[in-house]
Structure formats: structure tokens, C-alpha cells
Amino acid sequence: MSGTIYFIVPYPFGEAPSQRFRFEQYIPDLEAQGYRVEVHPFYDYKTWRTLYTQGNSAKKAWGIVRSFGKRLVLLFKLRKADHLFIHREMAHVGPPILEWLVAKVFRRKYIFDFDDAIWLPNYSETNARFHRLKAYWKVKYCIKWAAKVTAGNEYLASYARQFNPNVQIIPTTIDTENHHNVRTDHQREKPIIGWTGTHTTSQYLEDIIPVLKKLEEKYDFIFRVISNEDPKFDLKSFDFVKWTKETEIFDLQQFTIGIMPLRHDIWSEGKCGFKGLQYMSLGIVAVMSPVGVNTSIVHDGINGYLAETPKEWEERLAHLLTDSSKRAEIGEAGRITIEDQYSVNAHRKQYLTLFQ
Predict the structure, then answer these.
(1) What confidence score (pLDDT) does residue 49 get?
(2) 3-state secondary structure of 105
């Protein structure tokens, strides 16, 4: 195999989990097969770092204008690429003009990849002003014009099949050899219940805080949040760790129990269970809401736990806080699930065939 692949993506290389765990970790495999790979983000690092800060509207606007300029230049370089892979969208704002130009004017085939219900409005308060610039309706056209579509789960694939028959499910995967390649210590003196994610998704933790307050009355544990912003929960067990790519695995490895609460809404249905996959890959017991793909990943009481009501959350967590041998047993079963079904090794061949 040989040829050049352009990955046309929203975010800078190495910065966004959706990119890191959907295609970036396969780049060494593609290069080993003889492909030349180029990653073309919409945002540069400077604009990306500014985007999620309060204010700075002028800098954000100028960064977006500059990003569109780079995209227009890229259009005239497409002939140099043998394969085009578009993750989520070519431009973070506006209608699908660029995708239309690629498909209809330049007559180039492309693979379209997505891992969330991105046709639904979802934005952070820091960027509420820019929310009106998003064109969520464009997703169906990006799918319709694609030669192939890769979706992170069946819910997303079902949406895509309305507009394109050539849809494959490729789950978000974990590199268990080179990245998530360590285990947690279930014999540590004080258990750590942990959660990781961006501040935009920390809202889901609000439903669990009352449960944790009750557990604090009976058990000695740490509740640790790894995120880009401190949610400042009023809990005596609360501990915040700033997320960094350099310490990501070490910090996660300290968890003995990993939680992924969600609400029953259409946005959550589209999630790919990534938090749970990360926990399980490190031998951490995952306790997850039975929403969407979570019910496919976790078999309750076998390789993790599902909890819906506050009572179920309290019972599952109390049981795990007091039984380290059960944590080790369930954690190892979760690790095996990842290796067999959600690892880079398990999906490498399927991924490489996309470009044949």
C-alpha cells in the first residue's frame, strides 16, 4: 500500500480525545504500510487555546477567519492526496460549503468520521456567543456526500444510514500496548473514586454529588476529578487534578473506581463510552449509567457495573469501597474486554482497510 492521506480535522494534533483515540493512534500503522500522512486541523494551537477562555472575542473571531483562509488554500492542494478523511467537519462553524466544494466541485471522494451526536446543539457557556455560528444541520450533508462513513457506535450509525448506505462502525479504541498499558493498584490504603472529562461534561456529576455525600458519612475515600477546570464540589472527599497529556495515564492509574454518570437524553445516546473504556483499560472498575453504548460495553457485575437510580449508585459504590478483591476481579475482566473488543489491536485491520 502507498499514497498520501489527508486527515482534515477540527483540532490541532494531539489535543482532542476524539482525534487521539479515533485516528491519531493509527497513524504509525498507516505509515508502516507505506502511506504518507498529513494532518490538517481547522484551528492552530494558538486559536485552540484561546477558544475555551472567557472573553477574547476579537482573538477568537480573527482565529476563525485565519482558519478559513487555511482551508481555502488546502482545497487547491487536494489533488496531492490519494485519500481524504474528514473527522466531524472541515470547518468548526458555518454551513458545509467546504465539504460541498470537495465533493461536487473538486469531485473528490472522502471518508467521513464522527463519534458524537454532532447534529444536535451542544456548546460550552464560554462560547455561547459563537454557538449561533454553528450549523448543526450540515452533518447530514457531510454524511450524504461521503464515499464512506465511520461511526463510533450503532446509534450514530443508524443516523448516518438515513443518508448514506456505506456506513461502518469503528468504536473509539484504546492503545493497550503503548499508552494505556499499566494497571491500577486495588490494594491501596484509601480507595479513589474518580472521574475524568472536560468542564463541559462535568454537569453529569451533579446528580452523583448527593450520593457521594451519603457515602462520606460511612466510608473513607477520595473523590478525584481530572479535568481542565476545577468544578469546586462541596465534598470533604473532593480532590482536583489538572489534566495534562503528559501525566494523563499516571493520574488515571490512581483511580480504583471510575464513574461515568449520564442522563437519558439524545446527546448521551450518541456517546461512545470513552471514559469507561479508559477506566477499564487500566483495570479500574467502571460504574456507568445504562445509557446508549454503555450497555453494550458493560455486562453488569461481570466486567463493570451499571447504575441508574441514586440507590443503585450508592449500593454499587459502597460494595466496591469495601471489597478490594471484587474490585480487582471486575477490573481485570474489564481490561480483557478492552483488549478483545475496544483496543487498537482488535480494530487495526478494519481501520487499515478503509484506505484500500
Answers:
(1) 77
(2) helix
Which amino acid makes up residue 226?
I
Residues sharing a CB contact under 8 Å with residue 213, sequence separation 6 or more, in sequence order? 235
User: Which CATH number is correct for 3-170, 3.90.960.10, 3.30.420.10, 1.10.260.40, 3.40.50.2000?
Assistant: 3.40.50.2000
Could you report the per-residue pLDDT of 220-251, keeping only the tens digit for each? Answer: 999 999 998 999 999 999 999 999 989 999 99
- In terms of Cα–Cα distance, which of 197, 168, 196 is closest to 352? 168
Question: Counting runs of H as helices and runs of E as strands, what totals does the chain give?
Answer: 16, 12
284: Cα within 13 Å, side-chain hemisphere: 33
Positions of the chain with pLDDT lower than 50, given as ranges: 124-128
| Beta strands 238-242; 222-227: pairing state | parallel
DSSP state of 90: S
- DSSP string across 302-352: TTBEE--SHHHHHHHHHHHHT-HHHHHHHHHHHHHHHHHHSBHHHHHHHHH
Using CA atoms, how far residue 117 sits from 22, 120, 138, 153, in Å, is 15, 6, 12, 10
Cβ contact 176:158 at 8 Å: no
Task: Give the tens place of pLDDT for each residue, 156-189.
Answer: 999 999 999 999 999 999 999 988 989 999 988 8
Cell numbers standing for residue 226: 481530572
**Closest-CA residue to 354 (of 75, 79, 91, 29):** 29
Q: Would you say 4 and 157 are in contact if contact means Cβ atoms under 8 Å apart?
A: no
Looking at domain 192-341, which of 3.40.630.10, 3.40.50.2000, 3.40.30.10, 3.40.50.720 is its CATH number? 3.40.50.2000
Q: What is the largest CA-CA distance in the chain?
A: 66
Own/partner pairs for 317-323, CB < 8 Å, 24+ apart?
A: 317/193, 317/211, 317/212, 317/215, 317/257, 317/259, 317/287, 318/215, 318/218, 318/219, 320/191, 320/256, 320/257, 320/285, 320/287, 321/191, 321/193, 321/215, 321/219, 321/221, 321/257, 322/219
* Cell matching residue 97: 460549503
Sort strands 111-114 and 83-87 into parallel, antiparallel or unpaired.
parallel
Distance CA 198, CA 191 (A): 23
Query: pTM (2 decimals)?
Result: 0.89
